[in-house]
Design goal:
- This protein is an alpha/beta fold.
- It has a domain of 164 residues: Glycoside hydrolase/deacetylase (TIM Barrel, Alpha-Beta Barrel).
- Helices cover 42% and strands 17% of the residues.
- It is built from eight helices and nine strands.
- Strands 1-2-3-4-5-6-9 form a seven-stranded parallel β-barrel, surrounded by five helices. The chain has a two-stranded antiparallel ribbon with strand order 7-8.
- Helix 6 links the parallel strand 5 and strand 6.
- Helix 4 crosses helix 5.
- The radius of gyration is 17 Å and the shape is globular.
- The two termini are 13 Å apart.
Length: 243
């Protein structure tokens, strides 16, 4: 299995850290003014990504109370439409000015979770992408509502799996507030990556195997030790088959 490796960037990290992460990923999701980011950080990320020939995507999010866009969120269909137009539109303008193609859209945090939990919001997000950014890929949770909506609408979607997050047996992520939700141990993460790559599955928190049709693998840029982890993951993705 060939996997894209993506990382969320422009979320307040130093430019040195941004550059170090971009050295190893194949695509980047750039915060565009909701939960984090502004025109300056967007432009800096795009310029660094362009040098590394990394696919650049918009990472729209909501400014929730605390938790860096991961707190409680309620949003309407119209609210989602306006948010995407403002944030993805702003990021697209920056990419155009820098001579870079907008490759994908990946929602952030609470927005990602809320849209996955409501079929109407999932359809709306897909229709927005198809209408305003035709040809743009959607990154969405493997097996989730957005993936199903995108396939029905004929929009290209890459199913996403998280290297540094624990999964429930139903395929949903373990909420960040629960013990063990965020994984930081290098060998545990690498074993999960290898299992996903060669067997197409990942172990749930309770031990059951989850069958996942992954196309892109995410490591969060704010995970402790992310720079060292992303390098190790990138190398693991290049390992020859054990068989």
């Amino acid at each position: 299995m060939t996997l894209d490796l993506n990382c969320d960037l422009g979320e307040g990290e130093s430019l040195q850290r941004t550059g170090a992460l971009l050295r190893w990923v194949t695509s980047a999701n750039v915060a565009c003014g909701g939960h984090a980011g502004d025109v300056v950080s967007m432009r800096a990320c795009v310029r660094l990504g362009k040098r590394r020939r990394v696919w650049m995507g918009a990472h729209p999010g909501a400014a929730t109370t605390g938790a860096a866009g991961r707190g409680p969120l309620t949003i309407s269909l119209r609210g989602l439409e306006l948010l995407l137009l403002q944030q993805v539109g702003a990021f697209e303008r920056v990419t155009m000015e820098e001579g870079v193609t907008l490759h994908h859209i990946k929602l952030h945090g609470s927005l990602y979770r809320v849209v996955e939990s409501d079929a109407r919001l999932a359809r709306q997000s897909v229709q927005m992408a198809r209408h305003w950014w035709p040809g743009c890929v959607i990154y969405a949770r493997a097996g989730g509502a957005v993936v199903r909506a995108a396939r029905r609408a004929g929009v290209e979607v890459w199913e996403e799996v998280f290297a540094d997050r624990a999964y429930r047996r139903d395929g949903n992520l373990v909420p960040r507030g629960e013990p063990g939700a965020v994984l930081t141990q290098r060998e545990e993460i690498l074993e999960r990556v290898r299992r996903l790559r060669w067997r197409g599955e990942m172990e749930s928190q309770t031990g059951e195997p989850l069958r996942l049709r992954a196309r892109t693998l995410c490591l969060h840029g704010d995970t402790p030790g992310a720079v060292q982890l992303v390098r190790a993951i990138a190398r693991a993705l290049d390992e020859p088959s054990a068989g």
